[in-house]
Amino acid sequence: MNYKTTTITLLLALTLGACSSFQQAAKSTPDAARIGETRTIVLVHGLYLTPRSWQQWKQFFEEQGYTVYTP
């Protein structure tokens, strides 16, 4: 094998290895399929704000049937 063929083969092997590891990670996440089923929202305020800054949004989402937490 020459240098070019070896380099291409190595890059192909690394690419396929990376793709298979991403696929395995996706399969090993049991909650990934349930993300669309959740009806809970957590709204976190930033610096210099309080949970009251989310009051109108909390009411809006609760009217839509969501459980909303504003810690």
Describe the structure.
The chain is mostly helical. It is elongated, with a radius of gyration of 23 Å. Strands 1-2 form a two-stranded parallel sheet. The protein starts with a helix and ends with a strand. The protein has 2 domains: 1-33; 39-71, no CATH class. The chain has helices at 3-27, 55-63, and strands spanning 40-42, 67-69.
List the main descriptive attributes of the protein structure presented here.
71 residues; mainly alpha; 2 domains; two-stranded parallel sheet; 2 helices; 2 strands; 48% helix; elongated
Structural class: mainly alpha
Q: Helical percent range? A: 40-55%
Could you tell me how far the N terminus lies from the C terminus, measured between alpha carbons in angstroms? 62 Å
Which runs of at least 5 residues are low in confidence (pLDDT < 50)? none
Number of helices: 2
Largest beta sheet, briefly?
Answer: 2 strands, parallel
**Residue-averaged pLDDT:** 76
Strand content: 5-15%
Count of individual beta strands: 2
Strand order of the largest sheet: 1-2
Number of domains: 2
Elements, N to C (H/E)? HEHE
| Shape verdict | elongated
Radius of gyration: 23 Å
Question: What is the compact description of this entry?
Answer:
With 71 residues, the protein is mostly helical. It has helices at 3-27, 55-63; strands at residues 40-42, 67-69.
